Structures are given as C-alpha cells and as structure tokens.
C-alpha cells in the first residue's frame, strides 16, 4: 500500500515587529485625535480659567448692597456677572483681585462695561458695614458690595464651593478670615462658565478674553 503524501500549504510570512509597532502608534494617534476633536467640538473656546463642563445654573442669593438697599442676585438677568467672596479687612488677595478686575473693565468699551457687573460678597458681615463696603468697592471702580447675613451666607457660599473660616482670633472684632480665592464667571443667561484662580488674575488680557467670549456666547 502506497502511503499518502500530504501536500504542505505555504505559510504566510509573519508581520515584522516594527510594522506592528507602527500600526499600534497609528491606532493610538487616531484615538487621541478623535478625543481631541470631540473635546473641541464640545467646548470650542479654550478658557483661560477652569471651565465648567456642564455649565450649571448659578445660585441666587439676597442681601443688602453697599448703598444700603435690598439686593438680590438673580441669575439670568441679562448681565455677565463675576462674583468674588471676600472681606474688606483682607490684607492682599481681595484688594488685588478687585484691582485686576478693574483693569479688565478699563479695557472694555462703554457698551461692554454696561453688560458686565462684579459682585463683591462679604464673608465678614459683622465688620463689613454698608459704609465700609461702599468705600471699599468704589475705590476699585464700579463693583457692587453685597452683605448677606448668616445663615444665608453659608448656604450661598456652599452653593458656589466657597469656604471661609475665622482664624487668629484675638477678640470679638480682631481676627482674620481664611477663604476661597476663586472668581466666578457667569454668563447673561445665568450659567456658571469658568472660575479664575487668584494666581491667574494678573493675566488681565486673558481674563478679558474669557469675559468677552462669555459675553457673546451665553448658554442658550
């Protein structure tokens, strides 16, 4: 009996290792490019400040303004708003923040200025009287001082992610306050768009860029 001889089929040569590496790099590049394009499509403007992904609606609050009149911040009132929580006895961060915002305002046209308000919300209601707040905010320009009583102040601060605490207490009216240093940028329809950290405030041109973008592109 003649044994059957099995014909061997040719085997394809293996892909060189460097070709696999090139294909892997191309695949990773494609994935990263897609992610970058998706991010750009979702948020076409590269905010200087830290942008809110979901642009939540800002929280309303009420108090007394620096003229002694009742005041309510109602998000979506038609003006772009920047909010900073601070106090008039603040040694450096608060005055410098308001000073930088004043420099931004000085670079705007009168029409742009009319579309923007700055609220300086006191985290020290016992010492920040109406008179003191008025003197403080008018020194830095056209901002509005707002005194919110407790416990409404705590609720408003918590809604914006702001913390504050008395420190170095030496007496009833002798103390300092540690507090968050972010400035909140809210568009004319009442949506939180970005937070400027205190370390970013000297970059006036870039603050202006964020402000003007939000002014022209509110969330609909």
What would you note in describing this structure?
By secondary structure, the chain is α+β, with helices and mostly antiparallel strands. It has two domains: 15-44; 50-216, Glutaredoxin (3-Layer(aba) Sandwich), CATH 3.40.30. Helix content is 35%, strand content 24%. It is built from six helices and ten strands, in the order H-E-E-E-E-H-H-E-H-E-H-E-E-E-E-H. It has helices at 17-42, 93-106, 110-114, 130-139, 152-159, 204-216; strands spanning 50-51, 61-65, 70-73, 80-86, 116-122, 144-147, 164-171, 174-179, 183-186, 192-196. The chain has an eight-stranded mixed beta sheet with strand order 1-10-9-4-5-6-2-3. Strands 7-8 form a two-stranded antiparallel sheet. Helix 2 packs across helix 6 (204-216). The longest helix is centred in the N-terminal third of the chain and has 26 residues, at 17-42. The protein is globular and about 50 Å long.
């Amino acid at each position: 009996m003649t044994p059957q001889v099995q014909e061997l089929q040719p085997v394809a040569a293996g892909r060189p290792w460097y070709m696999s590496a090139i294909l892997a790099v191309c695949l990773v590049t494609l994935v990263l490019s897609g992610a970058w394009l998706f991010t750009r499509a979702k948020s076409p403007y590269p905010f200087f400040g830290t942008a809110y992904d979901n642009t939540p609606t800002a929280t309303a609050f009420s108090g007394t303004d620096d003229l002694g009149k009742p005041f309510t911040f109602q998000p979506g009132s038609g003006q772009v708003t920047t909010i900073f929580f601070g106090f008039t006895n603040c040694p450096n961060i608060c005055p410098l923040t308001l000073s930088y915002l004043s420099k931004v305002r000085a670079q705007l046209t009168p029409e742009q200025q009319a579309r923007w308000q700055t609220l300086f919300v006191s985290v020290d209601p016992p010492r920040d009287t109406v008179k003191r707040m008025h003197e403080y905010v008018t020194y830095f320009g056209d901002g509005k001082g707002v005194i919110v009583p407790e416990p409404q102040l705590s609720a408003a601060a918590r809604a914006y992610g702001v913390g504050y605490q008395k420190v170095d207490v030496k007496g009833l009216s002798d103390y300092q306050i540690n507090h968050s240093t972010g400035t909140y940028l809210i568009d004319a329809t009442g949506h939180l768009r970005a937070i400027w950290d205190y370390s970013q405030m000297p970059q006036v041109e870039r603050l202006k860029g964020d402000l003007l973008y939000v002014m022209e592109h509110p969330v609909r």
